Every structure is written in C-alpha cells, then in structure tokens.
Amino acid sequence: MADPRPFRIKIFADGANLEGMLALAEDPLISGFTTNPTLMRGSGVTDYATFAKEVLAAVTEHPISFEVVADELEEMRRQALLISSWGANVYVKIPVTNTRGESSADLIRELSLEGLKLNVTAILSLRQVWTVAHALTESASAVVSVFAGRIADTGRNPVPLMMAALDILGDVPQAELLWASPREILNVIEADDIGCHIITVTHDLLKKIGGLGRSLEEVSRDTVVMFHDDAQQSGLTL
To answer: Residue 231 half-sphere exposure, CB side, CA atoms within 13 Å?
Structure first.
C-alpha cells in the first residue's frame, strides 16, 4: 500500500465467494469477514449451512458474520441460536427490522442477554442506532452496521451521521460501529478519520487499496495509457 499511514480502523472483507474468502484470511490487512444473503445469491450459494461450515473450517480466528434469513421474529431467534452454535468467532446478523418494518429491538435485547455475538444490520437512521444501543447489554459483544453507502445514495453526507452514531454507542463500550456499503476507497479514509471501528469492503474494492497515496500525475499517465491501449486493441481509427 502506497499510503504510509497505518489504519486504525479494522477492515472486514465483505463477500460470499469461498475461494476469495479463504485467500483473504491470509491477508494481514483483513481483520474479519461479513456476508449476507444477497452476496450469497450472487456467488451461487444454495446450501447455507454447508457454505458456512466450509468457511469456518478455515477461518477460525477472524470474526465472521452470518445473517438470519427469516422474517418472523420467533424464527429469527431460532436461526440466530443455530448460527451462533457454528463457532466461537461467529456473529449473528439480525436486521434492524423485518420486511414489514417491525423493530427487532426486543429480539436483539433477548439475544444480547443470552450472550450471543450480534451484528445488527441494515441500519440507516440515528433513531435506529439509538434503538439498537438501548437494546444491547453494556457487556454485549456487538457490531452495529450503519449503511453509510446507502445513506450517500439518498444524497445525504453520511459522515455527520456516522459521527453521531459513534456518540450514541459511547454508552455501550463493547459495541463497535461498522461503516457498511462503502462506494469508493475514499470511504475507508473517511471512516478511519472519524474513529469508526470497522468498515466492510467488497473483494473488488479491496483491490483499490494499493492505490492509496499514489502520485496523481502517475495515475493520470496510467489513465492515458489505458485509453491509448484500448483504442489500439479495438482497432479504432479516424
């Protein structure tokens, strides 16, 4: 990596490609992993438990999050207990609401009191952050995933909201704020600068980390070379 400064933030690889996950488990830059049903669908995963156990057979130290797939809160609870049993490094992802917008705060409180490691996901508002913070026990090992990239997609600057989320979580010392769905590698710098604890980065976006700190003139020349080479390979003439 060209940028000489070390990251304070923990970088979690976001994906469901088994081969890629196993390779990244050996990368010292990666501190953990996150998955979700959409990523699994994109990678062709059809047997959830088999996929998870294949990952966990190799990834034994890094924290890794697997999400419930139910919509009814009682079934979410059953699935959460099952997923948690897969390994000591497993965090159970619970969506902040179900598809009908019903809060999962009571379920989060129950699971937190039972000692499950949780990753509360799909959070976009400070009201949701506040609700989750008050549902977690003070000693809970938990990740609070705020989808900063999706906030940005609505035309809002996510940085002030993420800073406010950090303040809200100050009363839950074991809870970590996760910057989810980054859209560009600059988001890693932004998240690091405000003291966010974790950022998830897709496998494709991780490839851009090596460009941090590069000379802009060098990047300019590489861009010109790319345009020229593509014109030549396409046989473009005037």
So the answer is: 9
- How many C-alpha atoms does 198 have within 13 Å on its Cβ side? 25
Domain segments of the chain: what residues? 10-211
Instruction: Tell me the torsion sign for CA atoms 35, 38, 42, 46.
Output: positive
CA distance 3 to 203: 19
Q: In terms of DSSP H, where are the helices of 114-170?
A: 126-135, 148-153, 158-168
Summarize pLDDT for 146-198 with one digit per residue, the tens. 999 999 999 999 999 999 999 999 989 889 999 999 999 999 999 999 999 99
Task: Tell me which fold the domain 10-211 belongs to.
Answer: TIM Barrel (3.20.20)
pTM of the model: 0.93
Q: Please, is 223 exposed, middle or buried when counting C-beta atoms within 10 Å of its C-beta (0-12, 13-18, 19+)?
A: exposed
Nearest alpha carbon to residue 200 among 71, 115, 70, 91: 91
